[in-house]
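Subject: sequence -> structure tokens, single chain

Hey, anyone have a minute? Need the predicted structure for the following. Not urgent.
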Amino acid sequence: MKSWLLRKGMVFRGERLVRSDVLVVEGEVAAISPDLTVDTAGELGIEEIDASDCLILPGFIDLHVHLREPGFTDKETVATGTEAAAAGGFTTVFAMPNTQPPLDSEAEVAAFSALCRRDQRISVLPIATATRGRRGTEPVDAAGLRSAGVLFFSDDGDGVPDDAIERVMQTIAAVDGIFINHCEYPAVTNARFHPQLPKEAEFKMLERDLAYVSTTGCRYHVPHVSCSESVELIRMAKERGLPVTAEVTPHHLLLTADDVRPPTGHFQMKPPLRTEADRQALLEGLRTGTIDTIATDHAPHGTEKECDDGSTQPFGVTGLETAFPALYTELVLPGVLSLETLICALTVGPAIVSGHNCSLVPGCVADLTVIDLIRTRSVSREAFYSRGTNSPFIGCVFRGWPILTLFQGKTAYRHCKE
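Reply:
Had a minute. Here:
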């Protein structure tokens, strides 16, 4: 196995950035020190990289991706999706279960896990459905799925309806799982773009769910928060000590409904882009810790998103490869968000929610990414590793791109200079 000596990078340790060298040997971080001496680096097969303009970070963790496999491999596969993840600096992703068939049983989860072991470039962990067949009626066998290693349960894409929500949350609470509900009341939703997908569809269902969190004790993770009312509900729930965490996407942090332009299908997502006031509330929620993580909600589609005005187009954004450079360029460089806050939201936050370890310390598995803060390039769909091309950032010029991602010490992604 190849070994690495990363020289003079800014290493993220203890939620601080410290300039150090990092030595990776046999799949582990062997040493971290300001001035490592490796006299026989060449003889030992150690490749040295000048990381003086770079960050050396724990591999990012994404709690919310759609890999489309099984069932929709024309849009993405485990292989292409994890290539895209590695290119974006991610070493662990959690895959949503709205596949065909859906991941609603131990057998389906086992089959998906076997597929991942064969094709993944990084770690893929399955999320199971909350109800059988994602039909919103009968809860899944949460105990069996927990024994198979599942932590999260979600019917993502559809919210669990009123007549099933209490039973679902009781079932998940009984096995100490975490419920992720797609907060969208269909009765409130009557069209596709903002403002016809009103924020009430989100925060009214969230308000309902939090009442059941209080009575069931179910751990609850709020996906893709998009409006100020939801941020306030989450803040109050945390103040009450409820077991609630939350995520926000890069596109909701960076864009509003006023940014929608042709091809409008690239801006067609759920929940929709909202107002500048909502965007500011999301940023403040992230700064204060009300929102715990950034998750991409990577949902790849192809050129069908460019065929008309978007009114009949599928929802979703291709997001794994652009997450860090977009947020670094648009939020960190102008001073809107601290670099440490951004890094924590992609590493420490999701690690705490999911029970993972993401510390860079000697002896740990070498899941890490190296970000070149000087590297600048435009977003091009031709350069995507993902099969998805539906990005609202096509043509944007961003700084701060990953140049190396190691998964268990092996090269999952390496930038080849143009």
